[in-house]
Amino acid sequence: IALADLKRYRESGAAFDDALGIYRGLYGADSTHVAHALDAMGGMRVDARDYAGAESAYREALRIYAAKLDAGNHDKLVVENNVLRVLETRGNCAEALPARVRLLEQGRASGQLTPTDLANDYLAAGIDDIETSAFADGERMFCAALAVLHDKPGTHSAWYAFGLEFLGYGLPWQGRYAEAESAFRDALAITLETEPATSASACRLRDSLSWVQGLRHRYAEALALARQVDADCTARLPDDSTQRPTFLADLSAAQLGNND
């Protein structure tokens, strides 16, 4: 794990292989010790962007947990979520969605989830709905997450801003651009209560505002804001950042809208 934190992924993988060999020898191939190590290995492979390897590790951990633990066990639910997260990262949202809904219902029924855990499950299911063009279902999931978060941690929390951000992404697909802009503005206002305008969350929300302004044909506003994001945020990102292409694409779209 320490090597993975240092981004020395090849060495980290070798260390995980050694640890797994020891655990299998001591406790058996299907022990929960092995499953814990496989789960951690999956996280390392996600960080290394080896998503096929991560999915393989997570699925093997889940197979062990499914045989050893109750359906509502927290460790099992976490690994199920990890499998789905990798599927979604690889673009397999249609495959992930039925399991997402089942996991949500299972976690809600267990009574073991914190409000933020439950809200996270709603948000994840909602994104899969949006990615599979079930836009109204996605909106309902996002609103359910916001309802959970309303009292705890509250409407000025980073989690509530996150829920509003998801809602903002979901609404334009239904042609509801003004509501999407309002959701993004509210999320940004909450974020700026505790973070600078150049934080990762604030930069992402400012870019999203530019995007939705462009959708509303307010090209001058969209371009002005996109240029601010480019100056304040894009240059700070590493070259391999997954956010950089989005910022640059939204700037390009705003420039095209202004014939710039």
Protein architecture, described:
- The protein is mostly helical and 260 residues long.
- 78% of the residues lie in helices and 0% in strands.
- It has helices at residues 2-5, 9-27, 32-47, 51-68, 74-89, 93-110, 115-131, 135-154, 158-170, 177-192, 200-215, 219-232, 243-257.
- Helix 3 (32-47) runs antiparallel to helix 4, helix 5 runs antiparallel to helix 6 (93-110) and helix 7 packs antiparallel against helix 8.
- The longest helix is centred in the middle third of the chain and has 20 residues, at 135-154.
- The termini are far apart.
- The mean pLDDT is 94.
Question: Characteristics of this structure?
Answer:
single chain, 260 residues, mainly alpha, 13 helices, 0% strand, globular
Low-confidence regions: none
Query: What is the radius of gyration computed over CA atoms, rounded to a whole number of angstroms?
Result: 21 Å
Distance between the termini: 47 Å
Fraction of residues in helix: over 70%
How many strand segments?
0
| Average residue-wise pLDDT | 94
Instruction: Write down the secondary-structure element order.
Output: HHHHHHHHHHHHH
Share in β-strands: under 5%
* Shape, principal axes of CA atoms: globular
Structural class label: mainly alpha
State the major sheet.
none
Number of helices: 13
What's the structural blueprint in terms of helices and strands?
Blueprint: H1 2-5, H2 9-27, H3 32-47, H4 51-68, H5 74-89, H6 93-110, H7 115-131, H8 135-154, H9 158-170, H10 177-192, H11 200-215, H12 219-232, H13 243-257
